[in-house]
Write a structure and sequence with these properties.
With 239 residues, the protein is an alpha+beta fold. Helix content is 49%, strand content 15%. It contains 7 helices and 5 strands. The protein has a 5-stranded antiparallel beta sheet, with helices on both faces. A hairpin with a 3-residue loop joins strand 4 and strand 5. Helix 2 packs antiparallel against helix 5 and helix 5 packs across helix 7. Keywords: Kinase, Transcription, Transcription regulation, Transferase. One of its GO terms (molecular function) is RNA binding. This is ANTAR domain-containing protein.
């Protein structure tokens, strides 16, 4: 996908991006589309990734444009800002730069070779980063980060465009999540209905008795109702 021409209106570019985001079916596809679009829309962006951040200092990458992003963020996954080796860079602050996202919606890393908290990026040749929150929960953040191999690649204009873009990504991600949940709810309802029907036939019960029996078995075995229903349906289909 080519970059937008210099004269291409930002509003039109975001409209095109929003259309592509909302055409996605699942949250995973939404995030994969978002990182691909990010490198074309955000000025200065060469790579992008979406990650989930959980306390304390744990980061898991869920979508990425290329392996350099996964490698750069993998070191943060162990719960240590220095990738698990607290002596790797003596005398330097090891708190990762993205920890500031707990209190701010946007964090810019100007130069990973000079700024504390970005040493792992410098090791991968990534000099600057622009991190923007997509979702914020009490103990979990979903974050989109754009990266560049040049220092100070992201200015105020890039930050403003990034916030506009992530607003569209957040809406599309919420929409895809709701669709996925509704689809799963319908599948679960059908599955429980099938299991109830099987119990009615086998145990000579009415619908209420069969469902009550299913619920009690779920509680007794400490198994989710959906999983128990699937087990009954699978066993019935195997016979």
């Amino acid at each position: 996908m080519p970059r937008f021409p210099a004269g291409f209106e930002l509003a039109e570019a975001l409209t095109v991006a929003a259309r592509q985001l909302h055409d996605t079916v699942t949250p995973h596809n939404t995030m994969r589309t978002a990182v691909r679009l990010a490198v074309h829309i955000l000025p200065g962006a060469e790579h992008a990734g979406i990650s989930v951040i959980e306390r304390p200092q744990h980061r898991r990458t869920v979508a990425w444009t290329d392996e350099v992003v996964r490698s750069a963020e993998a070191g943060y996954g162990s719960g240590s800002g220095s990738g698990g080796d607290e002596h790797a860079h003596p005398g330097r602050e090891q708190t990762p730069y993205w920890e500031h996202l707990w209190t701010a919606p946007v964090v810019r890393l100007e130069d990973s070779e000079a700024d504390d908290g970005g040493l792992l990026l410098a090791e991968q040749g990534l000099r600057s980063a622009l991190s923007l929150r997509l979702r914020a929960e009490r103990r979990r953040l979903t974050v989109l980060t754009a990266y560049s191999r040049k220092p100070r690649a992201f200015d105020e204009a890039a930050t403003r465009i990034g916030r506009l873009f992530t607003a569209h990504v957040s809406l599309a991600l919420d929409s895809a999540t709701v669709r996925e949940q509704l689809t799963e709810a319908m599948r679960t309802r059908d599955l429980i209905g099938q299991a109830t029907g099987i119990l009615m036939e086998r145990m000579d019960m009415d619908a209420a008795e069969a469902f009550d029996s299913l619920v009690k078995a779920s509680q007794r075995e400490n198994v989710k109702l959906r999983d128990l229903a699937r087990r009954i349906v699978d066993a019935n289909n195997a016979t």
